[in-house]
Amino acid sequence: MMNAVSGLGSQRAVIWWHRLVVMTRKEMLQLFRDVPIVAFLVYSFTLAIYITGNGIRSQLHDASLLVHDADHSVSSRELIHRFQAPFFRLNGEVADSREGLRRLDRGTAVALLEIPPRFHEQLVTGEPTAVQLLVDTTNSANGLSAASYAARIVARFGQETVLNRVGRAEESSDGLPLILSEHRVWYNPDQNEAWFECISHLLRQITIFALLLPAAALVREKERGTVEQLLVSPLTPFQIMISKVLAMTVVILGATAVGLFGIMQPVFGVPIKGSIWLFFTLTALFVVTTACMGLAAATLARNQGQVGMMTLLVAAPMLMLSGITAPMEAMPVWVRYLMALSPLRYYIEIANGILLKGAGMNILWDSVLAMVALGAALFGFGMWRFRRQFA
Amino acid sequence: MNLRRIAAVASKEWRETVRDRMFFLLAFLLPILWMLVFGYGLVLDVENIPYAALDRDQSALSRDYLYRFQQSRYFDFKGALTDEREADPLLASGRIRAAIIIPEKFQERLNAGQTVGVQTLIDGIFPLRTDITKGYVIAINSAFNEERLVDYISRRIGISRTQAEYRAQPIKLEVRYLYNEEVRSSWSIVPALVMFTLMLSCPLLTALGIVREKETGSIYNIYSSTVTKIEFLFGKLLPYVLISSMNAVVLWIMATLWFGVPFKGNLLFFLVASLVFVLSSTGVGLLVSLLVRTQIAALLITIIIAMVPTILFSGLIVPVSSLSPGSQFQAHLFPGMYYTNIVRGTFLKGIGLEVLWTDVLALALYAVILRLVGYRLFTKRPR
Fold first, then answer.
1. For chain B, how many structural domains are there in total?
2. Using CB atoms, which residue from B120, B178, B327 is nearest to A56?
3. Is the minimum CB–CB distance between A317 and chain B shorter than 8 Å?
4. Which of A87, A264, B34, B76 has its CA 20 to 30 A from that of A382?
5. Do B257 and B41 meet the contact criterion of CB atoms below 8 Å apart?
6. Mean pLDDT confidence for A309-318
7. The domain A63-166: what is its CATH number?
C-alpha cells in the first residue's frame, strides 16, 4: 500500500518534471526562431564585450590641454613638459587666453594652463609666483580630477626647483622628515581597466536580457491569448512562469560562458581566481531573481508596449546606480536603500568577488542571502498576481 | 504626398496610443521619474570611501595623521584594525575599500628627521575609484608633509614660517572652474539627463508602434489602403515626435526650475536642436522596427542599441575625448554624443549655433539618412 502511494507520487513527480522540460523547450524554440534576437544575443556577449573592454577608460585620460605661455623661458617650458600622458595630452599653444577660451567653448580642449610673464625670473629670485589653470567643469568629476592632477604636477615641480636651487637635489627626499605614501593596489595591481569594463559590460547584458525576455514572453502569451490554452492544459501556473525563467537562464549561462571563456579570459586576461562553479551557480541565481523582477512587472502589464516601458523604467536606474557605472559610496543614502531592491547591486559584489578577488561563500554569503530573499519575494508577488488574473 | 492621409494615419496612431492608458502614462511619467531619480541620485564624485586604519605606533603624531583622514569628507572611517590580516576579509567583501597602515616608530623617526613610509592598501576593482582614492591619500599626505616641512625648515635654517612656507611651495596653482563655477555634480548631470532620457524613450516608443502593427497583422490594412509609404511613415512617427518634443520641454523646465541649473544659451536654438535630435532618435526606432518581426525583438534591440552606447559613449559619464580611437569612432555613430554637446553647451556654456552647428548638422544628417534607409526598407508588398 505504502509502496503504491510512493510509486504514484514519484510517477507524478516524473510527469511534473517532464511537463516542465517540455515547456522550457518550447520557450527556447520560440526564442531561437527569432533571428534578430539570436543575432543580438551573439553580438552582445562577444563583440560588444570586446569593444567596451577595449575602449572605455573611466579615469581621466588624455585630457587635452592648451597652454598660453607668456614667459617662454626654460622654466615655463620645463613645467609644460611635465603635463604628460596618461593624464594630459598637450594640444598646442595659444597666442592669448581669449583664443584659449574659444577653444574651451568649442569643447576641443578641457583645460587651459596660463603661465604669467616673468615666471622664470620670479622663480629664480625667490619671489612667490602663480600659474593659472582654467578647467572645463561641464563634466564636474573630470574637471575636478584634471585640477587635482595639475596641482600635484605643479607642486612637485615647485619643490624640485627650490631644492635644486638650494643644492639639495641629490638628497631631495631622503634625510627630510617626510612621510612617503606607499600604495598597494589589490585584486587588480596593474589597474587594467579592461577587466573592470568587460566584467561590468557582461553584467549589463545579463541584466537586460534576464529582465526583458521572460517578461515580454509572458506578456506576449497574454496579449495573443495563448496563455488561455496553456491554462486549460495540465500545466500549473507555476510551471508556466518558471519555464520562461528556466529557458532564459540556460541561454544566458551559455552566452556568459562564451563571453567569459571566448573573449574575457583569452583577450583581456581576466583572471578567474575563485570557483568557476560557484560563479555560474550564482549567475543562475541572479538571472532567476532578475527574471522574476521582469515577470512581476509583466503581470502588471497588458501588452508588450507597456512591459517594455516598465522594464526600461526599472532597468536604467539598476544599470546606472547599482555601482558599475559610478561608485555607490558618494550617492545619497536613499539611493542605497532603493538599490537594496536591485539584484544587480549584490551580483556586482559576487561577480567581482569570485572572478577578481577569489572570494568564496564564506565572504559572499550576505550578498547571496539578500539576493535569494529578493528573488523569493518577487517570485511570490508575480505568482500571486498571475494566479489572481488567470487561475 | 497627401496631407489629409498623413493626418488620418497620425490621428489613428495618436488615438491608439492615448487609449492604452498605462502606456500613455508611462511615456510621460518615465522622463519625469528618471529626472528625479538620477538628478538627485546619480552622483559621479567619489566620496565617503569606507576605510579602516591600523595604527602600530599609537603616538600623538600618528593619531594626528589619521585624524586628517577621519575629518575628510572623502573618507568614511569604518574602524581601527589590530592586525594587518584583518584587512583581508574586509577588503574582499567590499566593506572597506582602503586600509591605512602606520608603521612602528612613526613619530620617533619623523622627529629624528627620517623618512617614514605609510602603507595604503586599496581595492583595485573599480579603477576610477581606485585612482581617485589614491589621489586623495596623496593629497592628505602631502598637506601633512608640507606642514611638517615648513616647521622643519624654519627651525633648521632659522627663517620665519611664511618664508619657509614659500620655500616648501614656491609656485601656487590658481584653478578657475569654468561653466560650472561651483563644480556641482548635478549641474553637469542634469542637462545630460535630458539627452539620456530622450535617447532611450524616443526609439522605444517608435519601434513598438510599427512592430505592433506588423505582429498583430493590422498593418495589412495599411498595405491594402491608398496610403503611400511616405505618408504612412510620416503619419506614424508624428505622434511619437510630438510626445518626445513635449517631454523635451518638460525636462527643460525641470532642469531649470526644479534643479536650478542655469540656462545660459538661446532657448529657441535649444528647442530647434532638440527637435532635430528627437527626429533622429525616433529614426533609430524606425530602423529597428523595420528590421524585426516581433515586439519582443524590437524591445530588446532598441534597449541594447540605445541604452548601452548612451551610458558608455555619449559623454554622459566618460568624456568622448578620453575614449580610445575605436570607441571614439563608435561614439560618433550614435546621435547621443552630438546632443550631449548641445545640451551642455546651451545650458552651461551659453553657446549657440555659431559653435554647435556641426553637431546640429550631424543630427540632421542622421535623421535624414535614417529616414531614407527606412523608406527603402519599408515595403507595402512583403514577401
1. 2
2. B327
3. yes
4. B34
5. no
6. 90
7. 3.40.1710.10
* Cα A284 from Cα A291, distance rounded (Å): 10
Domain shared by B140 and B269, yes or no: no
**Chosen from A122, A164, A183, A313 to mutate, greatest number of chain B CBs within 10 A:** A183
CATH for B117: 3.40.1710.10
Q: Do residue B129 and residue B15 come from a single domain?
A: no
Chain A: closest CA distance from residue B145 (Å): 6
Tell me what pLDDT residue A168 has.
52
Sign of the CA dihedral A29, A30, A31, A35?
A: positive
Contacts of B138 in chain A (CB under 8 A): 152, 181
B73 shares its domain with B135: yes
Domain that holds residue B128: 49-168
Mutate to test the interface with B, among A32, A268, A309 (most CBs of B within 10 A): A309
Question: Does the CB of A37 have a partner CB in chain B at under 8 Å?
Answer: yes
Could you tell me the residue ranges of all domains in chain A? 19-55+190-390, 63-166
Q: Does B289 fall in a domain?
A: yes
- B351 and B203 share one domain: yes
Assess whether B144 and B241 both reside in one domain. no
Of A309, A317, A327, the CB nearest to B129: A327
DSSP-derived letter for residue B100 is: E
* C-alpha cell belonging to residue B85: 590580516
Whole-number Å distance between alpha carbons of A283 and B144? 46
The last residue of one of the domains, among B107, B134, B168, is: B168
| Cα angle, residue A122 at apex, residues A116 and A127 outer, rounded to 5° | 120
DSSP of A231-276, one letter per residue? HHTT--HHHHHHHHHHHHHHHHHHHHHHIIIIIIHHHH-----S-H
Interface contact A179-B115, CB threshold 8 A: yes
- Reported as a pLDDT band with limits 50, 70 and 90, residue A6 is low
Please tell me which residue of chain A has the smallest CA distance to B46.
A330
**Would the CB atoms of A55 and B330 count as touching at under 8 Å?**
yes
Cell of A273: 581566481
DSSP category for residue B103: P
Quick check: is B177 in a domain?
Answer: no
For residue A291, give how far its alpha carbon lies from the nearest alpha carbon of chain B (Å): 14
Contact B310, B197 (CB under 8 A): no
- pLDDT tens, position by position, for chain B (383 residues)? 788 999 998 999 899 888 888 888 988 999 999 999 998 888 877 888 999 999 998 998 899 999 999 998 889 999 898 888 888 888 888 888 999 999 988 888 888 878 888 999 998 888 888 888 888 888 888 888 888 878 777 777 777 777 777 777 778 888 888 888 888 888 888 999 999 999 998 898 888 888 888 888 888 888 888 888 889 888 989 999 999 999 999 999 999 999 999 998 999 999 999 999 999 999 999 999 888 888 888 988 998 888 888 888 888 877 777 777 777 888 888 899 999 999 998 998 888 888 889 999 999 999 999 999 988 888 887 76
Residue A68 grid coordinates: 598660453
- Whole-number Å distance between alpha carbons of A89 and A79: 14
